[in-house]
Automatic annotation (TrEMBL):
Name recorded for this polypeptide: Bifunctional diguanylate cyclase/phosphodiesterase
Organism: Salinispirillum marinum
Top-level division of the source organism's lineage: Bacteria
Segment of the intact protein contained: 407 to 673 of 673
Lineage: Bacteria, Pseudomonadati, Pseudomonadota, Gammaproteobacteria, Oceanospirillales
Segments forming domain EAL: 24-267
Length: 267
């Protein structure tokens, strides 16, 4: 009682906390509406084979701007997850991407869809994706799923089931932001995954000796374990050339192409 009494007023009148909470609630309310009213757009960023600059895939990235209100996914995705909208949001993105792919007149390389952490532990994930592929008459190879390593570290049984079922059905699993999570490498020994995405923070420091050694090490480890490697956030020709020389096959970043509206990519 006394402890609460002394904590409460401080918390309540902290203007910073108050502003954060107001912002959070504002985003939550707008997000519910935006999903209902189809106000969030999808952009696609190319993934490129470093040896010949051919586009070998795309990543779907959400873009939300309504008039004056513009907000980056780095801010609103965590809000979606915290207020239990992560799964609804993922389903919205999945349906939008699938609908565009189904309309496409030309074949497209796989489009990667980011899946929120909680959703990946949900028992309906596999069924939902499986049914959506059937509904839009798409093969499993039309998509891949990106998840962060934090999802794997807890080893939730449903997560493992989802990975196993998804891969058995032909959908590849990419580990996003590899090396940046609060995580142990132990999951790599047990879990069947396909691709490791080297995070931009490592690519940014490739021109430093220690940064280069670290990335070389990650690539060597991935090769030894039969994972493919995709480097994220490549912004310069120097970074691209270093990665290529290290044996990294695929890259993604502003150097090769910024995310573009999905309708301008899928005709
Ligand atoms: P992510 O999945 O790691 O996506 C890569 C982020 O890096 C994207 O930011 C992309 O626009 C940005 N990026 C790519 N190349 C470069 C580069 O060369 N330089 C720089 N500075 N940035 C680059 P974005 O779109 O703001 O998304 C941030 C994060 O929000 C994503 O990180 C992902 O975790 C999440 N996110 C975005 N869209 C979705 C979505 O549709 N569903 C879910 N569940 N998460 C999403
Ligand atoms: Mg991603
Ligand atoms: Mg990433
Ligand atoms: Mg990220």
């Amino acid at each position: 009682m006394t402890r609460n009494n002394s904590d409460l007023p401080v918390r309540f009148y902290n203007p910073n906390q108050q502003a954060k909470m107001t912002r959070f609630l504002d985003i939550e309310e707008r997000l519910r509406l935006a999903l209902q009213e189809d106000k969030i757009d999808i952009h696609l960023q190319p993934k490129v084979a470093l040896r010949n600059d051919q586009v070998v895939g795309y990543e779907a990235l959400a873009r939300w701007q309504e008039g004056e209100f513009a907000i980056s996914p780095a801010e609103f995705i965590p809000v979606a997850e915290a207020c239990g909208l992560g799964r609804d949001f993922d389903r919205y993105v999945i349906k939008k991407v699938f609908a565009a792919l189904a309309r496409s007149k030309t074949p497209l390389p796989p489009v990667a869809i980011n899946i929120t952490a909680q959703h990946f532990g949900h028992p309906n994930l596999f069924e939902f994706i499986h049914e959506a592929l059937q509904e839009f008459e798409l093969p499993a190879s039309a998509i891949v799923l990106e998840i962060t390593e934090g999802v794997l570290v807890d080893r939730v049984p449903t997560t493992l089931e989802n990975i196993t079922n998804l891969r058995a059905s032909g959908i590849k699993i990419h580990i996003d932001d590899f090396g940046t999570g609060y995580s142990s490498l132990g999951y790599l020994m047990d879990l069947p995954i396909d691709v490791i995405k080297i995070d931009k923070i490592f690519v940014d420091r490739l021109e430093e000796e220690r940064g280069r050694h670290l990335v070389e090490g990650i690539i060597a480890m991935a090769k030894a374990m039969d994972f493919e490697v995709i480097a994220e956030g490549i912004e310069t020709a120097i970074q691209k050339d270093l990665l290529k020389a290290m044996g990294c096959c695929v890259g993604q970043g502003y150097f090769h192409g910024k995310p573009q509206p999905m309708f301008s990519v899928i005709m």
